[in-house]
UniProtKB/TrEMBL annotation:
SUPFAM superfamilies attached to this UniProt entry: Helical backbone' metal receptor
Identification of the protein by name: ABC transporter substrate-binding protein
Gene3D superfamilies: Nitrogenase molybdenum iron protein domain
UniProt keyword Signal, yes or no: yes
Record-annotated Fe/B12 periplasmic-binding domain positions: 37-291
Keywords annotated in UniProt: Signal
Region forming the signal peptide: 1-30
Superkingdom of source: Bacteria
InterPro entries registered for this protein in UniProt: ABC_Transporter_SBP, ABC_transptr_periplasmic_BD, TAT_signal
Pfam families attached to this UniProt entry: Peripla_BP_2 (PF01497)
Amino acid sequence: MKHSTRRDTLRFIATAAAATCAAAVWPLRAQTTTAPRLVTVGGAITEVVYALGVEAQLVGTDTTSLYPAAALKTPKVGYLRTLSAEGLLSLRPDAVIGTTEAGPPVVLDQLRSAGVKVELVVADHSWAEVQRKIAAVGRGAARETQARALQARLDADWAVVQNEVAQRTARKPRVLFILAHGASPQVAGQKTAADAMIRFAGGINVMSGFDGYRPMTAEAMAAAAPDVILTSTQGIEAQGGIDKFWARPELALTPAFKRRALVHMDALELIGFGPRLPGTVRVLAQKLAAA
């Protein structure tokens, strides 16, 4: 369930992108002393490229790469789980950087056989994940010094944010994350990006005792008794707006419904775990406290 739900999330994000990769397959160019040509697979990985200021080296991105706006104009190599070796090689990359969700494996093996450096970052919903993404892009772009400088700045901001959240004396809000991108909303349990974000922002995930995602049921809503509902802005849009979101009968059984306590943020920003994470946690903490 966990993997299929994460896949659905990324597919929903990907619908906002509209571009195709070049049709012709070019011979893989020989390694030179010029700056490496990069293809990034994963929205957060692409964000790191722009944060490092090496977007001139970016020759392609996947369809989940929607931020910043300039990323929408890059050639697209398709959805990160259904990549094509032909499409990727047509862009003549020196390196393909993504997460372990990228695939299929046979395509990645074909890239390696063609001499393309492939680096995949393990996602574990931690600050270390962000650090690994920055280091991977630094290596792939041959900009390791810049990557270390960026990491130092972000580490400092992360420490400040953690201290800000820890200093809050108010009662920790009981939060329920709902993935509402489809017709059957699901709730986030442990070992999910949403669970990590709730904890980082000083809240308590009311869904415990299971990993991944489960269907949203009336019984679960009544038992969980969340103070605040957290979801993505895209999920609100998929449900037809805030009023229709609240119209779901399961939500009427929660304290959050009585107060209309709802927080929503952009999906990639909220659960992408990219270089915006410190600022995102700061904003989320403020929103949860005010909800």
